[in-house]
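Quick one:
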Amino acid sequence: MRILVTSSSIALRTGGLRTGVLGLCKGLANRGHQVSLYTTNADGDKTLDVPLGVSTLEEGVEVFFYPAQRVILGNVLSLPMARACKRRVPNADLVLIHSLYQFTSTAAAHYCRKFRVPYVLRPHGILDSALARRRRWLLKWAYIQLFEKRNFNYAAAIQYSSRMEEELARQFMTVKSPSLLIPEGISLDPYSKLPSRGTFRAKYPEMTGRSLILHLGRIDQKKGLELLVEAFSRVASDRDDVHLVLAGSGDRDYVTRISGMLRDLGASDRATITGHLDDDEKVAVMRDADVFVLPSYGENFGISVVEAMACGLPVVISDKVAISTEIAEAEAGIVTTCQPEKIADAMEQLLDDPSLRLTLGRNGNALVNAQFRVERMAERMEIAYQSLSGVA
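Output:
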């Protein structure tokens, strides 16, 4: 099949989106399909230093970057990418469109309908009414009425990463298109040979002799980091052998807010906010951590959780993380409600029981190998896309 994939951005700051998009592209290409990714050079309020309008390789994937002419409230405007979609869509057997509330997504869907090319939408957890109402709700509602309803209802299918994501989307709006339920997948290559334990700690003397509580991902309100900071302060008040690592970057004002919260709770000398980490550093910090925590208010999948389990790291997650059911059933981690005291109790339980940490870590690694490998994801997508496009 000739598959065109579109995404408004794959900058490193997009975190799990970048990992998921590039991973599925590689997975499908490895199965013999012709896959091209069209995206922009948007990188928050900056732009990526990449060649524009020509074929480039990004982690082994053929990518065409187009200039982001303007970013308005997170919506990336790129007329060059829209024109490129107009030229390329008629030659595709199927188009996979990532994310909503984006000019690039709407343009791709428009040309698919115009040229009668089937397209699949991946909302990436955006259709959650509880999260949508937190920020710019009226603008989102207007965009849905003007564009997204049409984009959704004319799609060949809507691809969800979990049953929870599908249920939340259908509560959010009426969806006429059929559903595809295909869990995310990661490449296990980066985790086949882990670095020696202590590699990451060596850069941060303040972590010496302490157990590391890790959050890895965007520093974002959605992730429930206020809950984590409060929970950590409860744990740290009873013991002096713990250190909190918030690995990642995010909105400057929100990072300042979290830093201030740590200071107010008297935990700033027991916590480190690393900023952005490259791929090798991500694996190193997961290798050195003792517990991974994601107390998110809403997560359509949880790619960072899967990465942590691939490293054999026991996880503590909220019941709002979509794969919490699978993790609980596999005994690969502890699932809690979004309450600081419950999160603190789970962290204490793991810190006090090395044997339990080892067991949960092993179970998590087995779960990833069984269900969340990118090869498994690509196989499922291939079967579904061949049926939708009519191309064997």
